[in-house]
Structures are given as C-alpha cells and as structure tokens.
Design brief:
It is found in: Nucleus, Nucleolus. Belongs to the PNO1 family. Its main location: nucleus. InterPro entries: KH-I_PNO1_first, KH_dom, KH_dom_type_1_sf, KH_PNO1_2nd. By secondary structure, the protein is an alpha+beta fold. 55% of the residues lie in helices and 15% in strands. The protein contains eleven helices and six strands. The strands form two sheets. It has a three-stranded antiparallel β-sheet, covered by helices on one side. The protein has a three-stranded antiparallel β-sheet with strand order 4-6-5. Helix 8 crosses helix 10 and helix 9 runs parallel beside helix 11. The termini are far apart.
C-alpha cells in the first residue's frame, strides 16, 4: 500500500492563510486629501450676537484669511440667519477643520480678540470654558452686580491679574464668564473666579492662585 503523507495542523493553517493572503488584493493607503474628497462636506453654523456685529465687520478679513488659507474652508456670513456658515470642500485636507473653524469663530463671538482665538487653530490643547455667575452662587440685583465687579476689578485689574498668573484669557460678558486656555490653567482661573464670586477677600485669592500657578508651571 502506498504511504500517506501526514500534514500537521499548523502547516495546514499556514497554507490556508497564505492562500487567503494571495487572493486579497493590496491597495495603497489613501492620502488625507483623497479621504476628504470621498467624504461628504461638513457644515457648521455659528450664531453671532448683535453686539458682535461691528467687531465682526471690522475683523472679517482677519477671520476669513486663516479659515480659507490655513484650513482650506469655505466661509460666508448669512445676514438672514445671522450666522457664520462654514463648509469643507475638496481642497480641505484636515478631517476636523470644520469643527476647528467653528470653535475659532465661536470664541470670537464670545468676545475674545482675534489674536487670542487664533490660538485654537494653532494649538491642540486649548479649550474654552463658559459658566454663569449664578451657577456658582444664586445672586440677584445689586449682589449680582457686585459679584461681577469683584471678578472684573477696577479698570479690569483683577481680570488682568488672573490672566497673567494663569496664562489664560478671560471675557466677562454681563453675567457670563468665558475662559480660554489649557485644561489645567482653566481650572486654576475658574477656582479663583469662583472664590471672588462667593465673596472671598481678593488678597487671599491672589496668594492662593499664584501659589497654585507656580506649582503648575514648575511641573510643566
């Protein structure tokens, strides 16, 4: 009788894998531009408050230039909906460009300067945190006005001191407070602002904030 050739189970699996690999066609990886061209265009709308119309009109070239040249987006202002409309196109290479552009325009609509809002496009670890004075403590009338005054300070000195110590940018818009910076620096600035709203003495708030900011900078 002819001898049968024994095949091990592992060799059979290897042969099956080799045959399967040969039957699967290989394609080159798509570039970012090709992936963006295959995807559907993304839309974003950012509503502009009425008190920001004049700054938007004056700073429109500074806002459009980085969105069009850097992010390769299409931008327009719709006067009917009072929104800045952002759309990705075939030349857009970054998949998250539309959202980055919307965050940039939203920061400007909140009251930040164009130069400060541009940092959202250049750096990846920057965020905007927004809250209201009433979220910290329920106040009404003159008490609410005094709390906002403690945060701003005389001629904005308190706000500038917090910005310089924590390396953030702060906008006080009526009873809303917006903070632009890294996550750790935002936390330090937010804690200092909350202490001022509650009624803590400014001297103690400054000392505590500067101590925490120095420790944070030393870690970095």
């Amino acid at each position: 009788m002819p001898k049968r050739k024994l095949i091990k189970a592992g060799d059979a699996v290897k042969e099956e894998k080799t045959a399967a690999d040969e039957s699967v066609p290989m394609f080159d990886a798509l570039t970012a531009a090709e992936q963006a061209a295959d995807d559907e265009p993304e839309y974003r709308k950012v509503r502009i408050p009425s008190h920001r119309y004049t700054p938007l009109r004056k700073s429109w070239p500074l806002i459009v230039t980085p969105l069009v040249e850097q992010l390769k987006l299409q931008v327009r202002f719709n006067p009917r909906s009072r929104c800045v409309e952002i759309k990705s196109c075939e030349t857009t290479t970054d998949g998250g460009a539309a959202q980055k552009g919307a965050d940039f325009v939203s920061a400007f609509a909140m009251g930040f300067e164009v130069a400060d809002a541009l940092a959202l496009l250049r750096l990846e670890d920057l965020f905007v945190d927004s809250f209201e004075v009433k979220d910290v403590k329920i106040l009404h009338g003159d008490h609410l006005s005094r709390a906002v005054g403690r945060v701003a300070g005389a001629d904005g000195k308190t706000r500038f001191a917090i910005e310089n110590a924590t390396r953030t940018r702060i906008v006080v818009a009526n009873t809303h407070i917006h903070i632009l910076g890294s996550a750790a620096n935002i936390k330090v600035a937010r804690d200092a602002i909350c202490d001022l709203i509650i009624g803590a003495p400014p001297g103690k708030v400054y000392n505590r904030m500067r101590t925490v900011a120095k420790r944070l900078n030393a870690r970095l």
